[in-house]
Amino acid sequence: MSERTFSYVQMDVFASKPLEGNQLAVFTDATGLSSEEMQAIARETNLSETTFIFPRDSALEAKEGVKVRIFTIKEELKFAGHPTLGTGWHLAASRGVDAIALDLPVGKIPLEFRRDGGRLQYGEMRQRDPEFGKVHDPEPVAKALGLEISDFDPSLPIQTVSTGMPFAMVPFRSLHRLQDFSLFWPNAAEYLAKSDAKFFYLVCRETTQPDATLHARMIFYNGEDPATGSAAGCCTGWAVRHGVLESEKQGMIEQGIEMKRPSKIYMRATRIAEGVTNIRIGGSVVQIFRGEASL
Question: Would you name the residues annotated as active-site residues?
């Protein structure tokens, strides 16, 4: 077999300086790779997500967006936030544009970018309108997480929300308890398999940074996630609906602090009657590696 090479870049997403935020590998032209090969490459990178760009005719991209596929080490995802922002950032930087849309299995996701002196400084994606799911009984959630019911904030619901990936929002009463928390994934997975959520997103209104709205953690089968843009979109809908964040006011989620990869995820949305629309999640991205993979 002849050798094939594929260019890639590695980004730190939701970070303003290198070696913070959430890591992402972006294969800039994955033409010719099979699904099995992409899954194997994602296992090889061993990052929370790896994305693969499939360039197409410019007219088709203008209509439908740039085709991108997203993989964790175990599975392909229909949507994920930090891979969407990081991949969009790479495309905007390499193509010299300030707006771009990605064609993902959940649909077309638009992104807009701000520049300073020609360099990208900030990017923001608009996610699908949130779908509000089950309000969970605190007792079985506490059992699944190894917590007491008193560890939860009684003023806010434990609720599933999806903007393409369903997360159960779990509000903690105390920042200390959330930072001290350790998850036994098999117990959580057993509960989630019977629910309408794929993962838990653990949040608290007490924060370490005075400009943060919420402190967050997301722990799943691949360990802890430094920044979870898909969960942040769900959290934004939940926060606006339940009065944690005012409609159209920009808030910020701090995440990744416990694992020494601090991330800042900016959020805003619009309240309409009993619903929420116009979910926007943003932040900065830093490229730290560029290379080639040989197969």
Answer: 49
**Angle formed at CA 219 by CA 217 and CA 224, multiple of 5 degrees:** 85
- SS3 for 198? coil
Side chain identity at residue 73, one-letter code: I
Alpha carbons within 13 angstroms on the beta-carbon side of residue 68 total: 34
Cα distance between residue 46 and residue 244, in whole Å: 35
Q: What angle do CA 40, 288, 279 make, to 5 degrees?
A: 80
Domains and CATH numbers, the chain: 5-125+284-294 (3.10.310.10), 131-282 (3.10.310.10)
Q: Are 158 and 138 in contact (CB under 8 A)?
A: yes
| Single-letter amino acid code for the residue at 219 | I
Q: Token pair 């229909």 is at which residue?
A: 78
Amino acid at site 269: A
> Could you read off the pLDDT of 14-52 as tens digits, one per residue?
999 999 999 999 999 999 999 999 999 999 999 999 999
How, if at all, do strands 251-255 and 214-220 pair?
Answer: parallel
Q: How many Å apart are CA 28 and CA 277, to the nearest integer?
A: 32
Q: How far apart are CA 82 and CA 283, in angstroms?
A: 9
Q: Please, is 76 exposed, middle or buried when counting C-beta atoms within 10 Å of its C-beta (0-12, 13-18, 19+)?
A: middle
What mean pLDDT do residues 3-24 have? 97
pLDDT digits (tens, 9 = 90+) for 93-120: 999 999 999 999 999 999 999 999 889 9
Residue 202 DSSP SS3: strand
Apex CA 8: angle with CA 5 and CA 13, to 5°? Answer: 165
Distances in Å between the Cα of 294 and the Cα atoms of 33, 37, 79, 158, 271 are: 12, 12, 27, 46, 49
